[in-house]
Design a protein that fits this description.
Length: 301
């Protein structure tokens, strides 16, 4: 007769196999598998024996001790386990229903973005923040940029394997292209646009480590503090600001959705709450947005 642990181990391995065969992203696999381990540790038994009341009590405790994001991931992980491992119908989808909260991100005006760029004290962070803002990138997308992702002749950048494993092309303003070229010439890394820098330039070119995200975030917080902006401004706020500014310039929601890489137009539509929409040509408006910037570059001596 198999022990409880050996039974769980068998089902857990089936769970991992099913997650991989369904083509889920590594982060999703990690979250869904963690959900099953957490539930096993809580009850000290395999989840296939749990009753509806036990699950309700479990999720009630989880709501008290974890974020709603974790609660939703655990629910989805258990639902996947029931469907693909136990071959059972999940009957309790509404056992966990997070509160409906509508919030809007803090953003910067175009003049404030210009202030941030000029008050940033190091050249690499100036170029990095401009890159995030001027192409509406996520933090990880900007950090992962490679030299061969830049298509200068077509004025676009290839964003590879972004959120949800999706790739896309985004417009590359001439203003940003010039800044990226000037910055790359300071380190000449063969692969990365934003590598981890070393005191020895040769070591910088040999390393395959990208710039530290924590350093970029901390540097921006210092700038925001120096600017006395009493809002919750992060690097991601530059992406929100860019989308809002494009909308103000008349770029269509569909074009903004494609630039930002949103899977759902409804996600992009929230920017309509932050601005007034008109209709003009996308590329011209991006150029006009960048032409209005006037940055004093802090080139290394």
């Amino acid at each position: 007769m198999p022990t409880k642990n050996s039974h769980f181990d068998t089902l857990y391995q089936k769970h991992l196999t099913a997650l991989k065969l369904q083509g889920l992203r590594p982060k999703t696999i990690d979250a869904y598998s963690r959900a099953i381990r957490r539930m096993h540790d809580y009850f000290n038994c395999c989840p296939d024996t749990l009753t509806k009341d036990q699950l309700k009590n479990y999720f009630s405790d989880l709501v008290d001790s974890h974020s709603w994001s974790t609660v939703k991931l655990d629910r989805n992980g258990l639902q996947f386990f029931y469907k693909h491992v136990l071959n059972k119908q999940w009957d309790w989808v509404n056992i966990v229903k997070p509160p409906s909260v509508q919030s809007f991100p803090d953003i910067l005006s175009q003049a404030e973005v210009n202030t941030v760029l000029n008050k940033t004290k190091t050249f690499r962070y100036q170029v990095f923040y401009l890159t995030v803002y001027s192409m509406g990138l996520r933090l990880g997308e900007a950090l992962a940029l490679r030299v061969n992702d830049i298509h200068a002749d077509r004025h676009c950048v290839h964003i590879r394997q972004a959120k949800g494993g999706k790739s896309r092309f985004v417009p590359l303003p001439e203003f940003t292209l010039t800044a990226l070229r000037r910055y790359w010439q300071t380190h000449r890394h063969p692969s990365f646009i934003f590598p981890r820098l070393s005191v020895d330039p040769l070591l910088t070119r040999e390393t395959n480590i990208i710039m530290d995200r924590g350093g970029a975030q901390k540097a921006l917080q210092a700038v925001i503090c120096d600017c006395h902006f009493n809002r919750n401004i992060t690097i991601h706020s530059l992406r929100h600001s860019y989308a809002t500014h494009l909308l103000e310039k008349g770029v269509s929601l569909r074009d903004i959705q494609n630039i930002l890489g949103h899977a759902c137009l409804r996600t992009t539509a929230r920017y309509t709450h932050l601005t007034q929409v008109t209709h003009q040509h996308t590329d011209d408006q991006i150029k006009a947005l960048m032409d209005a910037l006037c940055v004093t570059w802090r080139l290394p001596s």
